[in-house]
Structures are given as C-alpha cells and as structure tokens.
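Collaborator request, handled under Task 6.
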Amino acid sequence: GLTAEIVSAHVANNAVAVSDLSNLIRSVFDALLEGLSNKQIARTLGISRSSVYRCLDQSATVAAARNSQP
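Structure tokens returned to the collaborator:
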C-alpha cells in the first residue's frame, strides 16, 4: 500500500534501525490519515516530494488496475 511505498522510499535514503520500523510505519500512516500535504510528508521523512508523488502515482495505478478487474 501507500504507507509501505513511502516507508520504502524513506528507508532507501536513510539508516533506520529495525526496532524503529514499526514507529516509522505508524508515523507515515498517521500522516496520511491526518491529510498532511506531500511536502509535509516529504519533509517529515527526509525524502523528496517527487518520491512522495511517485508513491502516490504507483498506488493510484494499482488501485485503478484492481478496480478495472471483473
């Protein structure tokens, strides 16, 4: 899902201890639920806005594919 895509982008660019992953996942999930802007999410996680947009685009593509299946 979208949370996993954003967490993956963050982990690819930052050292994250295994013990911190659950908190990171929760933070991303909460940020999405709160409706933070892409810029705010990117700033919070230390990733580029383009990474957030890319994650959103990928999630939208997957959702559209799922919805178009009979």
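The cover message to the collaborator said: "The two ends are 21 Å apart (CA to CA). Residues 36 and 61 are 21 Å apart (CA to CA). Please let us know whether this matches your experimental observations."
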